[in-house]
TrEMBL record:
Keywords from the UniProt entry: LIM domain, Metal-binding, Repeat, Zinc
Protein name: LIM domain only protein 3
GO molecular function: DNA-binding transcription factor binding; metal ion binding; transcription coactivator activity
Highest taxon in the source lineage: Eukaryota
Keyword Metal-binding: yes
Record-level GO cellular component terms: nucleus
Domain called LIM zinc-binding: residue spans: 23-85, 87-149
Nucleotide-binding among keywords: no
Listed InterPro entries: LMO_RBTN_TF (IPR050945), Znf_LIM (IPR001781)
GO BP of this protein: positive regulation of transcription by RNA polymerase II
Signal peptide: none
Amino acid sequence: MALTASPAQGIQMLSVQPDTKPKGCAGCNRKIKDRYLLKALDKYWHEDCLKCACCDCRLGEVGSTLYTKANLILCRRDYLRLFGVTGNCAACSKLIPAFEMVMRAKENVYHLDCFACQLCNQRFCVGDKFFLKNNMILCQTDYEEGLMKEGYAPQVR
Ligand SMILES: [Zn+2]
Ligand SMILES: [Zn+2]
Ligand SMILES: [Zn+2]
Ligand SMILES: [Zn+2]
C-alpha cells in the first residue's frame, strides 16, 4: 500500500467489462463477478467487502472516501472518533484525542485529569459547582474568595 500524506483515500466505482479477466477482491479473495466493483487503495473490492472495520457500513455507499490508519479501513465518522482530536486542553494546552473522555466548560475542553481548581487543585465530582473566571477553573471557595478580594459580594450561581 502506497503511503500518502492524507489518511483519506478515494473510492471509485467501476463497471466490470465482460471481456476482461475477473479481478480478485482484496476483502474476501474471491473473484469479482458482479457488474460493478470498487477500486480503493489500489485494490479491487466487492461492493459488500469494502466495509468500515468499526461499524461495518459499506464504504462505497456512505461516500467516496475511506480512511486508513494502522491497517484499519474506516469510514470518516469512525476515523474522526478514533483518531481525530477534540481540541486542546484549556488547562495544559496539549491535544486531546477524540476517543478520550473530556470535561467541557463553555467552549473549553479539558482532560479529565486536568479538570481541577487551578488554585487549590480540588477535583470536581458530578454535581459539584465550579466556576470559570478569566478562563481558569475555580472551586466555589476560591471563586468567592476572588470576588471578595475584588470587592464584590459573593454570588452563587
Ligand atoms: Zn469480496
Ligand atoms: Zn464506520
Ligand atoms: Zn490537559
Ligand atoms: Zn480551589
